[in-house]
Design a protein that fits this description.
The protein has 242 residues and is α+β, with helices and mostly antiparallel strands. Helices cover 21% and strands 7% of the residues. The chain has a domain at 24-119: Cytochrome C3. It has a two-stranded antiparallel ribbon. A two-stranded antiparallel ribbon has the order 3-4.
Length: 242
């Protein structure tokens, strides 16, 4: 009995600390201030939810070469005006362009909250931004484009992985490739995040994930947060207070 209690303490609040979550309206919003933090131009606010209704993650994070890391992409106004990065869509045709009258729509200087009335009809989630995007996509409630060119390509893999936990009182995690492929490309995860060839997943643990590695690349600030334990560990009876 004492050994079980000791083991529980090891995976409880003493060891794991989930990053604090913002309000629903601000979850998934990113402040891009790589070149504006100390200059006269205000930082850019990027809302994931408003773009997710129109495009899958693959479009920005593969075709347009946006890094998963905030401020990890060298976006410039010049590049945007040449049709790169944001400019691929914000050209005055597909979406509002890079002209003076639209500057404050992006350069808000703070993580502004979103008007969620536009997505209140979508399947509900208790965590993150309050929307179950996987169900919304599967049900056809949203129809985001998977490619700007129309040619998605890639390998289609419908394989569900069962990932055993390190502790016998924590049930296995389930990873469904198919659900992730609706949003992403194989190249988004392999080999940079999950290097199967080099067996980097041997270090796969909640500690690494909470540090922003592996699943934590997305499931900390944009995709449903790690608080939603049963989304990955479906047979978990009592969700631990991580």
């Amino acid at each position: 009995m004492h050994l079980v209690l000791a083991a529980i303490l090891l995976v409880g609040p003493v060891r794991f600390h989930l990053p604090p979550l913002p309000a629903r309206e601000a979850y998934g919003n990113v402040l891009i201030d790589r070149t504006t933090a100390s200059g006269p131009v205000k930082a850019v606010t990027f809302s994931h939810w408003s773009h997710r209704t129109r495009y899958t993650c693959r479009v920005c994070h593969l075709e347009l070469d946006f890094s998963f890391e905030r401020n990890g992409t060298e976006i410039t106004e010049e590049a945007n005006r040449k049709g790169r990065y944001c400019g691929a869509c914000h050209d005055g045709k597909t979406a509002f362009g890079h002209t003076a009258e639209h500057c404050d729509k992006c350069h808000a200087g703070d993580v502004v909250t979103a008007d969620y009335k536009k997505v209140d009809a979508l399947p509900w989630s208790l965590y993150g931004d309050g929307v179950n995007w996987t169900r919304a996509l599967a049900a056809g409630a949203i129809k985001p484009l998977a490619s700007l060119s129309g040619d998605v390509g890639g390998i289609q893999l419908d394989r569900t992985l069962t990932i055993e936990a390190d502790w016998n009182f924590v049930p296995a995690a389930i990873f469904p490739h198919a659900e992730h492929e609706r949003w992403l490309d194989c190249a988004n995860c392999h080999p940079s995040i999950f290097n199967v060839k080099k067996k980097s997943t041997r270090q796969f643990s909640m500690r690494n994930i909470l540090a922003g590695e592996f699943c934590g690349t997305c499931h900390r600030r944009v995709a449903f947060p790690l608080n939603d334990c049963r989304r990955c560990h479906p047979t978990m009876k009592n969700e631990p207070q991580l």
